[in-house]
Amino acid sequence: MKITYRLFFVLLLTVWQAWTLSAQEASSSPEEKKDDYFEVSKNIELFVDIYKELDRYYVDQLDHKKLIQIAIDKMLQSLDPYTNYIPENKVEDFKFQSTGKYGGIGAIISKTGKYIEVVEPYEGSPASKAGLRPGDIILRINDVDMVGKDVQDASELLRGQPGTPVTIFVKRVIGTHADSFDVTVTRAKIHVKNVPFYGMLDTAEGIGYIRLTNFRQGAAREVRSALEELKRKGAKKLILDLRGNPGGMLIEAVMLTNVFIPRNKLVVSTKGKVKDWDKTYHTFLDPVDTTMPLVVLINRGSASASEIVSGALQDYDRAVIMGTESFGKGLVQSVRPLLYNAQMKVTVARYLLPSGRWIQKIDYAHKDRKGRPVIFPDSSSKTFKTMAGREVKSGRGIHPDVEVHGDSLPLVARELLNQKLIFGYANLYRNTHDSVPPPPVFEMSNQEYADFVAFVDSADFSYETETKKILEKALEKSRKEGYYEEVKEPLNQLMSRVEANENAQLTKHKAIIKELLEQAIMSRYYYMKGRIQESFDRDRQLDSAQTVLKDPARYHRILQPPSHE
Q1: Which of 444, 464, 558 lies closest to 511 in space, CA to CA?
Q2: What does DSSP say about strands 101-104 and 115-121: parallel, antiparallel, or unpaired?
Q3: Nearest-10 crossing angle of helices 510-535, 421-432
């Protein structure tokens, strides 16, 4: 008991000291500071008192660690999704998010049911070299049973000092039977690349392509190196693909922007409650190319550092931004050390693009009646100007110069992905085919697609459409309202037609499903590079980017303000 209460008072003292420091740095009046001191002190003491009473009188034994974790998480969740507490046992995972480096076997794993499953070994990793494949079920790690365990449990056992061995007992399904065997993997220092693929899309037109998936440490260096190599191969135009890139380190965004614009140009500025966070970030290196025609692809999944890069290049009229509206994250986080080797990632500032606009979409300070944060209204949006005088708007992310929507997946395809049937068939394909042609040469045959349909049928694949839900609800309503007998026959007939149509969806949407299968299969042999290359076959946004780059007059016209004659 004494230990528990001592912990609380240490917490109280720490919060009080932190609060005092932040209050001193903030620009509030002495009267406001006094009121704030009182409110913080009163409520922390009240929290400790409540916990004492629970500890003494609650009918069951309290799990102190769990309850305090819940209290901390709930407090931070009430602010924004980016302010997080990082306990000591998760600090290494958090470091990986910013550096992309760790000691381990180099594989993505997930939990499916009660099993830990290999999702994807990284190219050239110890896991790949040892022969682990997607779909392999991890039953034991160093004689520790993994059935029913969480991904965190498996990760802690798989990670370790580079050069040390780990023995993994796996089960692999091959056709209609399964093999189980031990695999010994020697851990190494793993570095996950920010640029999984770059290459020439059109040699005749000199169009190069770089895919950037994260802004971890080294992202700008990887893009710089890729661009220099593409230029040696004849690239005169470039597509930088930031679709689905959730962002990362702010300094990497600054250095990446610097690849395309000269030294001493403002990229982003930050403004926070504490004056130390009022900073400006300028380019400070020699660029690689400041004139090469450039298209940057963005979408709803492009956030944070992706928006700094695309927004800054847009403000300097340096690139045509294409795709769909980005995520809209205009907030900056800092990692703060805590007691007991824990850390906290806290939102400390807003960032502004060179034009002065703030692109935050969600207003976390205000909630709707259900307690959900609201979106800033259109009326709050302001107009700013790029260097050339083009109008750009604040709020709601980066608005593309050319809006191009990607092909949306039909429901049946989404369900095949969600229920891991495409994942499962690709694993089966890999385990029964030693080699296949590389992308873009590889193409599934009609017989192979028929095999997939049979695979889906054997898995009892089913899903519910919105139409079917509406019909079922209508039948239920008719029972309650007393006219079921009158409507049941026509509604059931409609239901039968809908179900028949569901069964025909695998044929109707064969082209899209086949493309998803081909991407998954390519990743089994050629890793992420293969998946990306295979996706080029049906990519409306990428095709549009190439079309713009092949039309210099249109490209330059997009980057000029509209004429008013």
Answers
A1: 444
A2: unpaired
A3: 70
Read off the pLDDT of residues 415-448 as tens digits, 9 standing for 90 and up: 999 999 999 999 999 999 999 999 989 999 999 9
Query: Could you identify the residue written with the tokens 């805590």?
Result: 338
By annotation, the residues acting in catalysis are 304, 315, 329
Asked if residue 267 lies in contact with residue 288, where contact means CB atoms within 8 angstroms, the answer is: no
Dist. CA 61–CA 535, nearest whole Å: 54
Closest CA to 158 of 172, 173, 175, 140: 140
Give the 3-state secondary structure percentages of the chain, helix then strand then coil, rounded to 5. 45, 20, 35
Q: What is the DSSP string of 197-233?
A: EEEEEETTTTEEEEE---B-TTHHHHHHHHHHHHHHT
**pLDDT tens-place string over residues 32-66:** 666 677 777 888 888 888 888 998 999 999 998 88
Dihedral of alpha carbons 146, 151, 153, 155, sign: positive
Alpha helices in 459-551 (DSSP H): 466-481, 484-503, 505-508, 510-535, 540-549
> Phi and psi (nearest 5°) for 552?
-55, -40
Q: What is the pTM of this model?
A: 0.89
Residue pair 294/286 in contact (Cβ under 8 Å)? The answer is no
CA angle centred on 507, ends 503 and 508, rounded to 5°: 95
| Pairing label, strands 320-323, 402-403 | parallel
